[in-house]
Amino acid sequence: MKGSALRYIALAGAAFALVAAGAADARGNTGRADFDYARVVEVRPIIETLHQPVSWEECWSEPVNYREPSRYRGGSRDRAPAVLGGIIGAALGNQFGSGRGRDAATVAGAALGYSLARDSQRHKGRYSGGHEYTRYEDRCRVLTEHRREDTVVGYDVAYRYNGRVHWTRTDYHPGDRIQVRVDVQPVRY
């Protein structure tokens, strides 16, 4: 029994040593990661292209030619010359013919004298206006242009740590080195 008791004690001691080693390992890894720096070997910008409509108003002064409409300005509107022409025509017509022919010649002379005097007044009228002139007027139009704008939205970064190349994506340019988190844990079998 003594031999078997010694065996149990040896086994218990070995088990205690294993448990103590595991506890020591657990105390050494507190879940806190360490940080280090890695050398950046390549940086590729991530570019996003935006198409923005940009509008503006363009204005200028433009010469515009105008022409006044022509208007007829008649002669005198006074009827006295026409009436006087009618009287003179009647007197002249009265000089021709006899009997009823004389009466017809008097009426025809009156009508002819009135008509001639009235036409003479109209022919003394004239056309006025019709002048051309130039005036400058403001003109405007809205122009729209679609502008392309390239924007860097991030970076694909390659870095070397412990002889291996790793890739990550950042929203800033890291420069020559990048900070990395180092978390070492034992592999369990």
Explain this structure.
The chain has 189 residues and is α+β, with helices and mostly antiparallel strands. It folds into 3 domains: 1-30; 37-58 and 144-189, no CATH class; 69-130, no CATH class. Helices cover 35% and strands 45% of the residues. It has helices spanning 2-28, 80-94, 100-123, and strands at 34-67, 70-73, 126-129, 132-161, 164-170, 177-182. The strands form 2 sheets. A 4-stranded antiparallel β-sheet has the order 5-4-1-6, with no helix packed on it. Strands 2-3 form a two-stranded antiparallel ribbon. The model is unreliable at 23-28 (pLDDT under 50).
Structure described in brief:
The chain is of the alpha+beta class and 189 residues long.
Write the layout of secondary structure elements.
Elements: H1 2-28, E1 34-67, E2 70-73, H2 80-94, H3 100-123, E3 126-129, E4 132-161, E5 164-170, E6 177-182
Antiparallel strand pairs: 1-4, 1-6, 2-3, 4-5
Based on CA atoms alone, the radius of gyration comes out at 59 Å
Number of helices: 3
Largest sheet: 4 strands, antiparallel
Per DSSP E runs of 2 or more residues, the count of β-strands stands at 6
Strand content: 35-45%
Category from helices, strands and their pairing:
alpha+beta
Primary descriptors:
3 domains; single chain; alpha+beta; 189 residues
